[in-house]
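> example.struct
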């Protein structure tokens, strides 16, 4: 039956038109056990994030997100674009970086950024960033509401709950609370 799929013995051609060839090469390389060099992660960060998100390659998506955050300076000019992208692709670290920028630079943001596009469901994240800025990064072990995303991921991993760390802050907090309740 499988042989019938190939007809005359030639393998079928699969066209992937929405991913750059260099990015698809890195995607395949990663899936088959390779690592994507940091320079390429930075150069193609958004393209890799998009492709990894499309094909559910979570760890590659997280690596590309980290490289993007490290190599991008959040400014009043790009804050909203980065926030909307982070929200659309479920990029918790990028979203946190943008929220931190907004919390730290409120006056500049209010004066220069149209908040008409600011998604209402992200107000809580903005309040978390503002609270963290005012009270410091410390978060009690039993109350994860102001803990940084990287720390939430570390805690999930330590508890053996880090199998799918591609998620919102709320999902990570809920997983930690549920895991603590089940213990």
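> example.seq
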């Amino acid at each position: 039956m499988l042989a019938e799929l190939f007809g005359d013995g030639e393998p079928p051609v699969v066209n992937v038109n929405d991913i750059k060839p260099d990015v698809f090469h890195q995607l395949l390389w990663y899936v088959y056990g390779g690592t994507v060099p940091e320079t390429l992660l930075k150069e193609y960060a958004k393209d890799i994030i998009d492709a990894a998100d499309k094909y559910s390659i979570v760890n590659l998506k997280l690596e590309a997100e980290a490289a993007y955050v490290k190599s991008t300076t959040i400014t009043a000019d790009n804050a909203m674009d980065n926030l909307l992208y982070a929200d659309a692709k479920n990029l918790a670290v990028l979203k946190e970086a943008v929220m931190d920028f907004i919390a730290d630079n409120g006056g500049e943001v209010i004066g220069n950024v149209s908040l008409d596009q600011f998604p209402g469901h992200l107000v809580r994240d903005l309040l978390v960033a503002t609270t963290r800025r005012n009270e410091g990064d410390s978060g009690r072990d039993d109350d994860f509401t102001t803990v940084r995303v990287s720390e939430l991921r570390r805690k999930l991993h330590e508890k053996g709950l880090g199998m799918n760390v591609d998620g919102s802050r709320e999902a990570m907090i809920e997983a930690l609370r549920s895991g603590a309740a089940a213990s």
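> remarks
The chain has a mean pLDDT of 85.
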